[in-house]
Amino acid sequence: MTSFLVRRVVGALVILIFISLITFYLFYAVPRDPARAFCGKICPPETLELVRHNLGMDKPLFVQYWLWLSAIFVGRDFTQFGPCPAPCLGYSFATQEPVFSTIVDRFPVTLSLTLGASVVILSFGILTGMLAAWKVGQPLDKIASSSSVIGASLQIYFIGPLVVFLLVDTLGLLPRPSYVPFTEDPLTWFVHLLIPWVVLSIIFTANYTRMTRSQMLEQLAEDYVRTARAKGMSGRSVFFRFAWRGAMIPIITIFGVDLATLLGGAIITEQTFTLHGIGELAVRAVLNTDLPMLLGVTVVGAAAIVILNIVVDVLYAFIDPRVRLN
Amino acid sequence: MTTVSWSSEPGTSRGPGPFLSVRDLSVRFSTEDGVVRAVDGLSFDVEKGTTLGIVGESGSGKSVTNLAVLGLHDPAHTEIDGEIWLEDQELVGASGATLEKLRGNRVAMIFQDPLTSLSPFHTIGRQIGEVYRKHKGANRKEARERAIEMLERVGIPQPATRVDHYPHEFSGGMRQRAMIAMALVCDPDLLIADEPTTALDVTVQAQILDLLKDLQQQYGTTIILITHDLGVVANTADNVLVMYAGRAAERGTVREVLSKPRHPYTWGLLSSMPRLTSSVDEPLVPVRGTPPSLLSPPAGCAFHPRCDFSQLVGSELCFTQRPDISPESGHGDACYLTLQQKRDIRTGETKDHA
């Protein structure tokens, strides 16, 4: 277990370095000059040179990368912005705020959105999928299966505003989606995020319903399930104690990927509900040619994916004793 | 029990008879292609404490029959007619709750592939113990002790350690032993073994069969052994039922069926089996053709398309009329050839071979 974790964490770091390198390179491959953007519309060549020097952009590419990378561990002193203690991801070109603290500020928004939606998605998806498998071929199964297809084919930018219009503007049942820190007022936090959670889960739940249903049916056809029935186990205990374990493995895999994607920034969702999370930050960084911010968001998103993959692997080992981590 | 109960439902009482009696059983599956008559009018008896070997090709209805005894068919796609009597209890019409109490308790089953038939997610001890807990109301600790005792009984070394292992940590033979331990944990009266040795290598096969025999002698368990291997039957069973296309082709004691086989299909099975006494050069004679589709079985005797002797019967009886097994008890077969004709054919064949 420990050696597994060490190996995976080292692997994760290599991946993150690789991703940041690619992002760095791609940024300079794009024919837009961040110094020019930073300098403003009317920009004399001398000022442009100065800006370039202050941003550290006059140094060779690999030196710039090395400075960026080492700053994460040892911090860095910027002539323009002042000292930046570790973990330092630099200062945003656009807002001149430290990137790290901006991400830290924004992260709770994305985290609240993602985790809340995940709870709804997993509980509803697995529940309806299991019900459908339990009542396979019966009306309940058909309703669950067909409504999940409808859910999966909806788009958030369509259904999101529709739900807001209906529940907020017309019926006035819920407040307009926004972010109130959980630590400030849990109830307000909950009520204001309810619509984004529900809308996200309408779209994602379908996938989990379908997968749970098909996985359960697959497991129920397995020999060991027949053995359990031949032992006199009741239909219910066969369903929930035996088949369930096997069915969860692929669901955890997909959930790990979905969760990481959402944590890396649910760009469209955040835009739809004007929530200021990581996704919105990423969009602005791209539009503003804001290299430090873009790098920071990319690396944080990639880290979320890599870490969740490790978590998923550990979970496998807990569910399935045949999986050995070493 | 404080009250004395007679037979629970009227009309279900029965005088003393065989331990297990299957009467005119049919099992039909509705599939997308039509109705499959997997078992079609099958009757047989098993006496207490004996072993019945059921032999036949794949798809002859061996497993389907025995899954019907445990009521394990999916009722949504299966139609079952006929009667299955376990002593004085009828099982075809029995409720789900009744069958649940029976399974793993009075009637237990072991399956062909012990790796896929054991849950990969639970320890061996737990899988054995939960049967005991379910049927005997034992607590966790008692169930665990019982599991260790059972593992010891089926010859697994270091049972106290092994009880906490998972199936993937066992070898093939040990898994089947564990499977047997699981089946026997509640001391069942009837054990159905569905090709218990097919997935195992030959030396392990012999060990498992010996184990079953020993356990039967010790505990008086009645065994139904499903196999396609006549060698297994010869070593283990008291009686044999040869099945073909969902029906009984021949029935009798092992001695009767193997040394004086009457049905052409049994002849085919026997001549397709290697013997130590025959010369190496002598070719094995397989039964020609393939088993019939049970979606549209041949009219008349289902074996007639593969039978070399149907023209001897005359008046196209084999092609139009389905033979029933006769005589009703003892050594019987379902074939229109007269005993004299069969004797002539067999002696002729022996001469040919000589």
UniProtKB/TrEMBL annotation, chain A:
InterPro entries: BPD_transp_1_N, MetI-like, MetI-like_sf. It is found in: Cell membrane. One of its GO terms (cellular component) is plasma membrane. The chain crosses the membrane at residues 9-28, 115-137, 149-168, 188-208, 242-268, 293-319. Gene3D superfamilies: MetI-like. CDD domains: TM_PBP2. Belongs to the binding-protein-dependent transport system permease family. This is ABC transporter permease. The lineage of its organism: Bacteria, Bacillati, Actinomycetota, Actinomycetes, Streptosporangiales.
UniProtKB/TrEMBL annotation, chain B:
It comes from the Bacteria. It is a peripheral membrane protein. Residues 22-270 form the ABC transporter domain. Signal peptide: none annotated. One of its GO terms (molecular function) is ATP hydrolysis activity. PROSITE patterns: ABC_TRANSPORTER_1, ABC_TRANSPORTER_2. One of its GO terms (cellular component) is plasma membrane. It is found in: Cell membrane. SUPFAM superfamilies: P-loop containing nucleoside triphosphate hydrolases (SSF52540). GO terms for biological process: peptide transport. Keywords: ATP-binding, Cell membrane, Membrane, Nucleotide-binding, Transport. InterPro entries: AAA+_ATPase (IPR003593), ABC_Ni/Peptide_Import (IPR050388), ABC_transporter-like_ATP-bd (IPR003439), ABC_transporter-like_CS (IPR017871), Oligopep_ABC_C (IPR013563), P-loop_NTPase (IPR027417). Pfam families: ABC_tran, oligo_HPY. Gene3D superfamilies: P-loop containing nucleotide triphosphate hydrolases. Belongs to the ABC transporter superfamily. This is Peptide ABC transporter ATP-binding protein.
